[in-house]
Amino acid sequence: MDDYDFSCRFYVYSNRVIKLEKKDMIRIDADNYVACIDSQKLGTGQLYCEVTAQIPDCDFPDGLRQEVEKVRTGVEITK
Fold this sequence. Notes:
Layout (H helix, E strand, L loop, with lengths): L4 E7 L5 E5 L4 E4 L2 E3 L10 E12 L7 E14 L2
Antiparallel strand pairs: 1-2, 1-5, 3-4, 5-6
């Protein structure tokens, strides 16, 4: 993960979102990062994460391929 840029967008199905860039996360090692969020800012419900990665790829005009992956975290935010 050190080789490319990425961001994570955390949300429940509401209009509230927390977006963290790679630089705002805690680097554990070359392949693992930890994102810390304040869940009170999101409200209640199932927590989802959308990861957007900018991967170097010479076949694309700007040299980057964007990939987006949506993940259900298995975490439910309750009050």
